[in-house]
Structures are given as C-alpha cells and as structure tokens.
Amino acid sequence: MKYIRIPLGAVQTNCYFLINDEKECLIVDPGGEAQKVFQTIEKHKVKPLAILLTHAHFDHIGAVDEVRERYNLPVHLHRLEKEWPTNPELNGSRFFPLGEITAKPATDLIQGEGEQTIGGFTFQILETPGHTPGSVSFYFAEERWVVSGDALFARSIGRTDLPGGNEPQLLKSIHDKLLTLPEDTFVLSGHGEETTVEEEMDGNPFLNGF
Question: Where is the Metallo-beta-lactamase domain (predicted)?
Fold first, then answer.
C-alpha cells in the first residue's frame, strides 16, 4: 500500500488517498478543491471505494458532495457528528470568514471502535474525541499508519475552542489511543507534515507529563 497527501482548501487540510496493490483507493477528508481530488484519482488511475471522515469540521468536508456524487461513494462519519455536515454552527464554518459550508449527511455512521473492511482494505477505527466529540483515527496496523485527523499533529495537538471541543478529553485520547501504538507508527495528521508516535512522545510540548 501507499498513500498520497494533498493539502486542500483555504486552511490547507490534508486529504489522504490510501491506495492498495489492486489500485483501490480510500479518500480521507476531502476538504475542498474537488478538481484536485479528481486530478489525483485520474493521474494515478485508482478506483475510489469510499470517503472516510475523521470528523466533520468544515475544512474536512468541503469537497465531500462533489467527490461522492462523481464516483457514487459512501461517506463514513462517526454517529456523534451525524448532524454536523448540514449545520454550519456545528461544523464551525459559521465562525470563519469563508462563508457557510455544508455537505449532505453521511451514508454510513461509525457506531464505535473496531475492525472495518472496505474492499481490499482492513483497518481499525479508534475513537479519539476531544477536538470534536466524534473524532476518529484510522489505524492500518500492517503499514504502521494512523490517520489521526486533527487529534495529533507534529509537535502540536488539535484545537478545542470550537463547539464540542474538550482539551482533557483530547489529551486522554492521544495518551490512551495514539501513544500506545508502536513507536514507529507514522501519524498522518489533518494539517502539516507527517510525524511518528515516537517523535511526539519525545518532543511534543503539549504532551509533557505523559
């Protein structure tokens, strides 16, 4: 397997294309600029199977409808954020000068943690709330990847000042779910560069004391 990371939209949210040997593709967090998503799919000649959302903030859902309609894809989102795509106050777009952003409801609601199989992909869903109530991370054990959304960044953590944010809960999620993964696990974050669990355990100033 391989992945491609493309920052999209006004705040450069990372969209990930997870591609297996059969050229199937999972699209994580298509946050805007749908044409760039289409171009990536066409350039690499992959078959999209689904859209996975780590959470439903506006900068992670901006291109969801265009992408899903073009390829007839299911959209997976945690059940606690069922109402968020359609609500600019919940998804945060009402609080930023970019205009209100909405998307249609997700087709597949994530009910909790556990193993998920889509096509030739098998991965673990980890509930990592705190940035938002329904934030999840997608862990691919064989590849040693975890797509963490806005829970954990290189030398930083997700903000908790938007609706539903909870800093103690976020720190607990990071400690209990992400820092317990193998230290060489690559963390594919929602913004910025990739990092590893080991690097964040050793050098993230927000995690001192863990």
Answer: 12-191
